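Milestone M4 deliverable, item 7.
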Amino acid sequence: MTDDHVDSKRRRLLTIATTSVGLVGAAGLAVPFAGSLSPSEKAKAAGAPVEVDISKLESGQQLTVEWRGKPVWIIRRSPEILELLPSIDSRLSDPNSEAGQQPLYAQNGFRSIKDEILVLVGICTHLGCSPKYQPEIGPVEFDNDWKGGFLCACHGSKFDLAGRVFSGVPAPTNLVVPPHQYLTDDVLIIGDDGGVA
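Output delivered:
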């Protein structure tokens, strides 16, 4: 004889238990899968965009982050510096940034999206040394009319506070401006400009 009686309580318990085990298993698989979608440290070093909070960056301060294994400088320039930059154009090799060392949106007198924020790859275009930030204004050992900028002590190349190279130094071109964009007023992405040329 067959028993056609179905124990609905037992069936409900088995359904709940099976569903629970399935959900736990799916969650267990989803966590490593979601983690695999984030760029690895190796990918970040290879060029993944870097997000930087610049909210605490004060006038005259320099912040250095790493992108593609290179130092990237972020500097908040004062209104005084912005006023001084055009006054040294005659001393520069490429004052109008005509060489392709920056995206088109940074091909302006300040070489930036926002006038006060400068973003540069901190590597000299001569032999790859890292120039030193020299923000002081006034006579210095290497320049009697210094308006602030960068000095590459290795071979004497000088750059202003827009990363433009001085005439008569070994460096052939301005410092590189990397692709970048602002997510908000205080958050900068280096390595991704959102497709803007």
